[in-house]
Design goal:
This protein has helices spanning 42-61, 64-80, 82-92, 97-118, 160-171, 186-197, 212-221, 234-243, 267-279, 296-311, 331-346, 375-378, 394-401, 417-426, 460-466, and strands at residues 10-12, 15-17, 22-26, 33-38, 124-126, 137-145, 148-152, 175-179, 205-207, 227-231, 248-252, 257-261, 289-295, 350-353, 357-358, 361-362, 365-368, 385-391, 406-407, 409-413, 431-434, 450-451, 454-455, 468-476. It is an alpha/beta fold and 479 residues long. It is globular and about 75 Å long.
């Protein structure tokens, strides 16, 4: 495998640009240098925004058939280079090669859905004669692009989460500037390459790499940016909201996802789904299973099966076909998780398995008897840690599931439709997965949460709705 460092360029003003300063992109497995990317300055970002103002006009004038063609050609390009994309996702991030391949497949699907939805941006006729005195008026509304969108993306899905912002933006006739995560910027640059090769007009898409402390405020506060689409942590989201000014905001801010397992559930199915849901991408997943509430009558059996399956999880080299879980994104992230777990144990939690760190690797960890006053009980761990809780019944499980300031996805395992619908009605979340873990999503569904989990919805069709505005047209006719 070629490991030479060649220095990547970023896409700005329709050109591939270098910078005097660079950011080193390192493999969290062993901290080896993968490549460098430009460290853009605040002035670079201001220039990019000025260029994107012209990109706004270009994007809005693109006929729908051209948007569709560009999106499909970009998807074709990624599909042809799928192993290259997957290898980079695995190297610069935490995913195993098998997890990375799935992300590439989803990215292709996201862009193809975007192409399909581009033809479905519809309006409606309006019956103006519903109002007395308006009998001689007729009209409609249609949706128009809002202009320039800023996309700020995280490290854990460095390709598909970028596609979830870029695809809908292009489909709806907007220009977009992407600021990818500093830890995993190369996947976003590869996506930009695919769009460049697909013939996307210059200045419609920019991907600018750099330190958020240097370029972040310029992007989020600039008055010509009409929408911010952010995926990341709650604290960062709150900071963006405090600075953004009068513009549209879309935010997916993570969760502390609960799953309920009732006594009539298929335990083997529940165990398999939730082990995967808890430890996928080393637990660095906004949908990851963090809390599992199990009816008391089956708790011991479920816990034993869950620990047995967790201990079978293979941790190691991300590029090995046999590996189930790789390292966390950095040793610093693993140390934070280690600290949270140790705090919980010191306050009375019982460690059932795991709880060990080796550099950036943190072993799949299962706890029970979690005290309510520890960090793990309230916050998103964003690591390979799951807690098991015995509960008396469904009502207790719902009450405990809802007590945190997050509400992205929840799951319930049961064969009883009445209980499933009761959970659906009363769980305070953006999505309920029945007989599946919280870590289930397709790219065409509305995706987002309530409370501290965010604002608005992603998912291609729904993101397009967020990225457009309705314009009313009314004709007054001669009598």
């Amino acid at each position: 495998m070629n490991t030479s460092v060649k220095g990547r360029k970023m896409l700005v003003e329709g050109q591939w640009m270098e910078c005097e300063q660079v950011i080193e992109v390192r493999d969290p497995k062993n901290n080896s240098l993968i490549d460098t990317v430009p460290a853009a300055t605040a002035e670079d970002m201001r220039k990019a925004i000025e260029a994107a103002k012209e990109g706004v006009k270009i994007a809005a004038e693109m006929p729908v058939h051209e948007r569709i063609a560009v999106l499909n050609r970009a998807a074709d390009s990624i599909q042809r280079r799928s192993e290259e994309f997957a290898t980079m996702i695995a190297r610069e991030g935490s995913k195993t090669i098998r997890e990375a391949r799935k992300e590439v497949r989803r990215c292709v699907e996201t862009l193809r859905i975007s192409a399909e939805e581009a033809r479905r941006i519809h309006g409606e006729t309006i019956s103006f004669d519903q109002m007395p005195g308006s009998e001689n008026r007729i009209g409609y509304f249609y949706r128009f692009p809002i202009g320039l969108i800023a996309a700020i993306t995280p490290f854990n899905d460095p390709l598909n989460l970028v596609a979830h912002k870029v695809g809908p933006a292009i489909a709806s006739g907007n220009a977009i500037i992407v600021k990818p995560a500093e830890a995993t910027p190369i996947s976003a640059l590869l996506l930009a390459e695919a769009f460049d090769e697909a013939g996307l007009p210059p200045k419609v898409l920019s991907v600018i790499t750099g330190n958020v402390s240097e370029i972040g405020d310029v992007l989020i506060t600039h008055p010509d940016v009409r929408m911010i689409s952010f995926t990341g942590g709650l604290q960062a989201g709150q900071e963006i909201l405090s600075k953004a000014g009068l513009k549209k905001i879309g935010m997916e801010l993570g969760s502390n996802s609960p799953v309920i397992v009732l006594s009539d559930a298929d335990l083997d199915e529940a165990v398999e789904a939730n082990v995967s849901g808890a430890f996928w991408a080393a637990g660095q997943n906004c949908l990851g299973v963090q809390r599992i509430y199990v009816e008391e009558s089956i708790f011991q059996e479920f816990a034993a099966k869950f620990i047995e399956r967790t201990l079978q999880y293979r941790v190691g080299d991300k590029l090995s076909e046999l590996t189930d879980m790789g390292p966390m994104i950095s040793e610093r992230a693993a140390i934070r998780v280690e600290k949270w777990v140790n705090e919980a144990i010191e306050k009375g939690a019982t460690l059932l398995c795991g709880g060990r760190r080796d550099g950036a690797y943190y072993m799949p960890t299962v706890l029970t008897n979690l005290p309510s006053d520890c960090t793990l009980a309230e916050e998103e761990v964003f690591g390979p840690v799951v807690t098991l809780h015995p509960v008396s019944d469904l009502d207790a499980a719902i009450q405990q599931s809802n007590h945190v300031n997050f509400g992205l996805h929840a799951g319930i395992f049961t064969r009883d439709l009445d209980k499933a619908f009761k959970a659906i009605r009363h769980l305070d979340v953006g999505g309920v997965m029945v007989n599946d873990s919280t870590d289930y999503r397709i790219d065409g569904m509305p995706f987002g949460g309530v409370k501290g989990s965010g604002l608005g919805r992603e998912g291609v069709k729904f993101a397009i709705h967020e990225m457009t505005e309705p314009k009313v047209v009314c004709f007054k006719l001669s009598k």
